[in-house]
Amino acid sequence: MPAGVDTDAREVVLDAIVVEGLRKQFDPPKGPVAVDDVSFGIREGEIFSLLGPNGAGKTTIISILSCLLRPDAGEARVGGFSVTRESDEVKRLIGVVPQEIALYEELSGRENLLFWGRMYGLNGPALNKRVDEVLDWIGLVDRQTDRLEKYSGGMKRRVNIGAALLHNPRFLYLDEPTVGIDPQSRRSILDGVKNFNAAGVTVLYTTHYMEEAQEISDRIAIMDRGAMIAVGAQDELVRLVGERTRINLALDRNADILAERWRDLAGVSTVSEPEDGRLWVLTDDANSLMPRLFDSAQTAEARITEINLAEPNLEMVFLHLTGRALRD
Length: 328
Hints:
Layout: E1 3-4, E2 15-25, E3 33-43, E4 47-51, H1 58-65, E5 73-78, E6 81-82, H2 87-93, E7 94-97, H3 109-119, H4 124-137, H5 153-165, E8 171-175, H6 183-198, E9 202-207, H7 210-216, E10 219-224, E11 227-232, H8 234-238, E12 245-251, H9 255-262, E13 268-271, E14 278-283, H10 286-299, E15 304-310, H11 314-322
Parallel strand pairs: 1-11, 4-9, 4-10, 7-8, 8-9
Antiparallel strand pairs: 2-3, 2-5, 5-6, 10-11, 12-14, 12-15, 13-14
Helix pairs in contact: 3-4, 3-5, 4-5, 5-6
């Protein structure tokens, strides 16, 4: 059962999306369990993010809620409809933005949107009007006649999002939409998500970028290895680490040796694995611990070249709950 305030979707009667006990294993009986007894609820009109590293089960959940993958156990309902028994009704309510670009390189941005609009049953003046609106939302009016092969990766992703909005969905799923794109397109996508939500669209967003989840989400579910380990608003999740502080350090040598020694120090909750001489120490008594860190480094003939204290954030929550950094 995940930590946090909203640990059981069944307790929230008015949730627009309800997930109860989902489980999915690939290649059973020995294959990996991608989703393991996951339950949560998404409220109408909110931005709900699934935050976790690659392989956490985020995409599998999106696939189940999109009626593309059948769960081995559990149930999910979208807008009151079962994803397993009423898939046609669910599909009419959702717009899905997959990780892969589902567009045609030889067509222009506008032509791609016209194609997908017809797939949704739009045509004539209504289709052209809707495409105009979507192009304005995604900020590509000036580039709409260019062939997609001339677009940057970020521009293609924006068209991908636009295609999912053509039929005016009640729910929008975005699966890692900012991976591998430039900062300008990333900013455009995040601003767009907030604007779509303000217009009444309920958003399910997956990411392994902590800062994205912090910026756009009303509530966040932290996932790891197929399990949901915490659910709640950002401030609720941060309270899970209590009064702990993260000390960020850089060492000129012997970081691996010191990481092992520091794990045994009183007051230390977690020490991250060193990377290029940098590591974190999670503690509930930073003032008392820091002199001992310097003494220990000196004993190991190492020097702390940089040290600073970090305010609690979602990365600290993940580290506290799993013992690993979010991107490990």
